[in-house]
Design a protein that fits this description.
66% of the residues lie in helices and 8% in strands. By secondary structure, it is an alpha+beta fold. The chain has 2 domains: 197 residues; 131 residues, Heat Shock Protein 90. Helix 9 crosses helix 12.
């Protein structure tokens, strides 16, 4: 019996608390399938075994005349126990049935203390079927009736028979309440964890949306926006020199740049790739990207060229495009040099121009007029675990430098 005493509460406590969450006052009685778990089945089986043993013991020790009333009470208690424990009670109040069972049981155990051992199963049935004050009152009635029956069995002289059941009842109540409290606390914590997981998932979705917007913003800035700005400069220069030979050259270059921008725009719709550059060897692709905006750009390669992850290659191309566009629009440079270096575990990139330069600390923030270039370049590099820097000063040219790990930095 002690083993069942300490393990039994977890099943009914969990079922009662779970049902109580949906009613607000009294939990709906669990279905037979929910109630007859392994622990509940063990308790009910124990009650049946002890009841049969008690009946056999009583019959063997008393006359047939005494047996009639006791056997009738035992049969009634067994029937009421089955009603409370086994029948679906969702549409009924379990309290009246439990009160009737405790009343019959109290008379039985006082009249025949041999049935006192069945009180353990009755105690747990009471606590699992009811909640609140009613469960404590009826459990106390079971304890007092058992104490009275055992005290009577000791001819009213054995105080241990009177106090023992009371002490056991108090201990079982404290143990049951503690297990029930722990189960409810576990469910509460589980609910909080589930809520936190839902909030985290929502935050991740929002963060993913923001990151995707920034990614598309960088792609548009480094391709369409830069190309259109350079084309506009060429057209304005052609307008000022028209109808001279220089104007014809500027118009031709602007037309070529617009064609490239049209291809870039189409590529943005199809996986944001760079047509014509993604399949070209990286050094050559970087030189072509720079010469889209600065036709006189040069390239220097250090180290032994090797395979570069696609995301690193894409970032390097965009950095070169954005830097070269800035040179064409703002630097008034006579020299633009791109240097790419291959290291065992990284690739480096430097874009130098001898133009007007600027103060990086005083660069204008992003606005409708521009200012996204440096921020977009830095984000591209740092998102791949790389390092990005800008060295410049008014009148001293500019160096845009990046270093990216070949593993992609993920």
């Amino acid at each position: 019996m002690p083993g069942r005493d300490t393990t039994r509460p977890t099943g009914p406590a969990a079922a009662v608390a779970a049902e109580g969450d949906t009613t607000g006052s009294r939990p709906a009685a669990p279905t037979p399938k929910e109630r007859l778990g392994s622990i509940e089945a063990a308790v009910h089986l124990g009650f049946a075994v002890l009841l049969v043993a008690s009946v056999v013991r009583y019959v063997m020790r008393h006359s047939p005349a005494d047996n009639l009333m006791v056997l009738g009470l035992a049969a009634a208690a067994c029937l009421l126990y089955a009603v409370v424990a086994l029948l679906p009670l969702r549409d009924r109040q379990p309290a009246p049935w439990m009160v009737a069972l405790v009343a019959v049981w109290a008379v039985l155990v006082v009249a025949a203390p041999s049935f006192a051992w069945c009180s353990f199963a009755l105690f747990f049935l009471c606590r699992s079927a009811l909640r609140g004050a009613a469960s404590y009152v009826l459990a106390g009635a079971i304890t007092l009736a058992t104490a009275a029956g055992l005290f009577r069995l000791g001819n009213g002289t054995d105080v241990a028979m009177l106090l023992g059941p009371v002490a056991v009842g108090v201990m079982l109540t404290l143990i049951y309440d503690r297990i029930q409290h722990d189960a409810e606390e576990q469910r509460r914590l589980h609910a909080e964890v589930s809520l936190a997981q839902g909030q985290l998932a929502a935050s991740e979705r929002r963060a993913g949306t923001i990151a995707e917007r920034e990614r598309v913003s960088r792609e548009i800035h480094d391709t369409v926006t830069q190309g259109l700005a350079s084309s506009l400069l060429l057209l304005e220069a052609a307008g000022r020199a028209w109808p001279g030979a220089a104007a014809q050259e500027d118009l031709h270059q602007a037309a070529n740049l617009l064609r490239l921008n049209l291809a870039e725009t189409r590529s943005l719709v199809h996986e944001l790739a760079s047509p014509g550059l993604e399949s070209t060897p990286l050094p050559e692709a970087l030189l072509l990207a720079a010469r889209q905006y600065v036709p006189a750009a040069t390239l220097t390669v250090t180290g032994r060229p090797g395979p570069v992850p696609p995301e690193v290659r894409h970032a390097l191309l965009r950095v070169v495009q954005s830097a070269a566009s800035n040179i064409a629009q703002h630097a008034s440079a006579s020299v633009a040099a791109v240097t790419v270096g291959f290291l065992p575990d990284a690739v480096t990139l430097d874009i130098y121009d001898d133009g007007t330069g600027f103060d990086p600390a005083a660069a204008a923030p992003p606005s409708a007029a521009g200012g996204y270039g440096l921020r977009a370049m830095r984000q591209r590099v740092e998102q791949l675990g790389g390092v990005f820097s800008v060295q410049s000063a008014p009148g001293e040219g500019t160096i845009v430098a990046a270093q990216l790990p070949l593993e992609g930095g993920k």
